[in-house]
Specification:
alpha+beta; 36% helix; single chain; two-stranded antiparallel sheet
């Protein structure tokens, strides 16, 4: 009986000693993990700056005129970014075009005004619009087929695709119809031919 008591006491002592934590090792792992996260963040930031440098030739974005005209269509939703037209993974980050945000779009006879809380607003003049279509993805965002409204426009000699998603996706079709009716057919044919060649 005494031997059983002795074994029980030994097991209890071993169990108690197992609770000791190596705090130095644990702190080392936490610090290492934090440094790794900081390094990844820094590399991502450097990549963003590098891409912005490559796109430095893109002129400043147009600003909306003081009298933009009577609104023809309006939409609230999200701005998901811009890419080089026809290359849905070639993100454009210059002048804040890479910043995702909430957005309010207003179509007038003068063009499309894009207001973004927390990010720079921009304006797409009517003369710069080339096409509107429904798509499923743009750099960093993939949705169901037809879940994204893409406006193709020209700025500084570069064709740009800008992706938007309305809070009520049913409104996308109205935008496609209105924008494409405002763009000359010859311009739309040129866009289609260029994308087909790629």
């Amino acid at each position: 009986m005494t031997s059983l008591t002795h074994i029980a006491v030994q097991l209890a002592a071993e169990k108690k000693s197992a609770e000791v934590t190596d705090w130095a090792a644990r702190i080392g792992w936490v610090v290492g993990l934090l440094l790794f996260i900081a390094l990844v963040y820094w590399l991502m930031r450097q990549g963003w700056k590098w891409r912005a440098g490559l796109q430095s030739g893109l002129p400043e974005l147009p600003q909306a005129p003081e009298a933009p005209g009577e609104p023809l269509l309006a939409m609230t939703g999200r701005y998901h970014g811009s890419t080089t037209a026809g290359h849905w993974l070639d993100r454009i980050v210059a002048h804040g075009l890479g910043v995702r945000s909430r957005a309010e779009l207003t179509l007038t006879a003068e063009g499309v005004r894009v207001e973004r809380p927390g990010a720079a607003d921009f304006f797409i003049p009517a003369a710069a619009l080339r096409e509107a279509r429904l798509d499923k993805g743009i750099a960093g965002k993939v949705l169901a087929e037809g879940g994204l409204l893409v406006l193709t426009w020209e700025h500084g000699g570069t064709l740009i695709d800008s992706g938007f998603r309305s809070d009520t996706a049913a409104g996308h079709n109205d935008w496609v119809t209105a924008v494409n009716n405002a763009v000359p057919t010859t311009t739309q044919d040129q866009i289609t031919t260029t994308e087909g060649a790629r």
